[in-house]
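Appendix B. One record, verbatim.
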Amino acid sequence: MKKFPVIKILKSDLYTEKSNAIANANADVNIKIPIDLWVKAAENASDYFLLIEDDFWCTKLFNYTEIISNLNTDKINMLKLCWLGNSKLLPNKSIDVNGEYSIYSPDLFTQNSLLFNFVFRFHRFKIRKIVTFLKIYSQERWLEYYTIFATSGAIFKKNFFLELWKNHKNSVDEGLQLNNALKYINKKSKLQLFGFTNSEFFKTGFLSSASNQNKQYENVAIDMFAFNKIINEAWFNNAFDSMENYPNDLCQNKIEELLIAANHPAASNLEWKKWVQEFKNQYVTFGCNID
């Protein structure tokens, strides 16, 4: 707020508790997610809005006003601007091209929400093993459903976004959100359309994490809250230039210097590098390009 006073920051009811815990190096940081704040912000947003996370950055200029106007004309529910180079998250074919983006309708294994839940979400009684053995379930079919869903890096139609978060129970459940997307599509009488830009406009980082779930990996001992505090304070005090390695990810060598200088027992340089490799591997295994 001090560095960029023109930016409006909305704070959840959890803000004070979380920020104090992080500032005081309290390991028991409340990891509850302020979904109600997100939904309320969406309710008060324009009919279309861009959603990105705090580890996203724009790699090329685009005419946002023009794209929004075209989305409204084409009646697009969601436009993807980032997919990490993973073609599995895009449809096999499009039905039209409008300037900077391609338009498509869902082409999925099933659009029936009950069958979707049984095949892709129901894990009890060895159901997953059975449907996999019968070649009904596959990772490729699962990823096809992400053509109608994105957590961020997309422009959303407000009504569609709000539908995604119905019955959220204050947790991020992508299976539930995919199910909600199917219900939204099925209750509409007209063909529902989605889109993706003809090239990616955003990248996301793999040297830290925007998640407050504090990702943990076996044999990796690092507190990412402590790590983020070191990097954030260096940035705030002008000791870390986030644009130094643009348009690529943050400068890894500079982060190493900061961690070595900080000498924090819960955020060592060695453990951070191990964490980064594990984090990257998560995305590489299902086809993402993280370079």
